[in-house]
Amino acid sequence: MMNGSANHGWISYHPDSRSWFLHVIRGEGPFLYTPERTIISVGNWKKEFRVINEEPLKEMISTKISYRRNMNGFYPGPFMGILTVEGKNHFKGVRENFIDLIEEGKKEGAFVYVVPIEKIHWKKQWVTGYLYDSRTKKWCKEILPFPHVFYNRIPSRKEEEKKHVQLALKKLAMQKKTVLFNPHFFDKASIFEVLRYHSSIRYLLPETRYFQTAKDLEVMIRKYPFIYLKPLKGMAGKGIYRLEKNKTDFLLKYQQGKETLQRAFSSFDETLTYLQERCKIPYLIQQGIPLAQYKNKAFDFRLLVQKNGVGKWGLTGVGIRLSGEGNITTHVPRGGSIQSPKEILPMVFPNTKSQLIMEQLKGIALTITKVLESKWPTLGEVSMDIGMDHNGHFWFFEANSKPGKFDEPTIRKPSLHNLIHYSQYLFNLP
Question: For a disulfide at 239, which of 36, 192, 231, 356, Cβ 3.0-4.6 Å?
Fold first, then answer.
């Protein structure tokens, strides 16, 4: 990690010659003499760099960087690895998101590249990673430094739970000169188990229990007007069922893509049999909450909480997700839409200042995040879903340790900024 005062310049890589350059700002630093070439070492990775007092050329892959300099040479950083797994065309993951973070690093001062977990060379302490050339829009495979910071973006639970991935994650967690965040995917039961022991949060939690027996389902559907059945490790609203008990039947709703389907059952036993056949993986049963509505469509809040450049939690942004016509969730892949709180809240709650609602949401989100951090200390960001009923009561539904992209520009831009600056903070820790 970097200590002491830092100078600023650029690191560049020329994809044609595969050569490296360190661009130093003329006159900056404690030494007037600048060598033409120097060896830069990061762990066991060593490369000869040409040191020049000019800004990078357009054909170079260049990143603003901080560096220390002493009698023994130059020490740049941070090097940030986006951690994923091998796959088609080198690696898996949402490349658009990776590119956004890499480009933000180039502007803000972090050398960011993609690292498949299978390409970590443990004994040599370097990695085979992928640089992005924005000029040619191509990925460049290269031997690169063992990152100072790993940002875990392994794209699915299935990949993350593979034996070799689990072993590698444990190794990374034990590295003394590398920091790994975020640790792993959450599951819904673990989150609720952690939160329900805190009185400051307990009132926000809808009743939730495992779906293991007929009794579990019967108790919940008798107790509440409607309930949800959710996969323990589900994502993006996939596999969710909504069950409502009417005077004459049980009405079950679920979605296939953006289409909402429904089936009516004349008895509890018939309903149970149908659900047991389809809920083979672990499921939770959750109290249904009658959410506030806008134009007869339910909505909830999607919040992003991140650590910043001084290692403190902050609320990056809040968006509203409005359900589609007749849909049972607000998830965008299931037909929901993105809306602005500034437009929706005054219409739905005309007697309550929107700013007050936003301040309450911020307080709730930060409280929940700090409790989750007490269980999983290497968290660096969390997104969460919080609902609000017609009475103005808030309800916590879900948290995600690997947030998807927020499409709102007012959230997207600062979210990338925070990731880079938090990595710089981790790099500068003693």
Answer: 231
Residue 62's nearest CA partner among 28, 94, 95, 15 is 15
List C-alpha distances in Å: 119 to 52, 86, 210: 31, 8, 38
pLDDT in tens, 128-153: 999 999 999 999 999 999 999 999 99
Q: Does domain 188-204+291-401 have CATH number 3.90.1010.10?
A: no
- Average pLDDT on 245-265 reads 89
- Chain-wide mean pLDDT for the chain? 91
Contact status, residue 402 vs residue 183, Cβ threshold 8 Å: no
- How many angstroms separate the CA atoms of 220 and 129, rounded? 50
Using alpha carbons, select from 184, 328, 199, 194 the residue that is nearest to residue 208.
194
Dist. CA 295–CA 183, nearest whole Å: 40
Q: Where are the domains of the chain?
A: 7-181, 188-204+291-401, 208-287
To which residue do tokens 């939730």 refer? 208
pLDDT value for 74: 85
61-88 CB burial, b ≥16 within 10 A, e <16: bbbbbbbbbeeeebbbbbbbbbbbbeee
- The interaxial angle of helices 214-223 and 268-278, nearest 10 deg, is 120
How many residues in total does the chain contain? 430
Inter-residue contact 158 to 166 (CB < 8 Å): no
pLDDT digits (tens, 9 = 90+) for 323-365: 887 787 887 777 778 899 999 999 999 988 999 999 999 999 9
Question: Residue 58: what are its φ and ψ, rounded to 5°?
Answer: -65, -30
Q: Closest Cα partner for 391 from 288, 291, 244?
A: 291
Q: What is the pTM of this model?
A: 0.92
**Would you state the pLDDT for residue 373?**
96
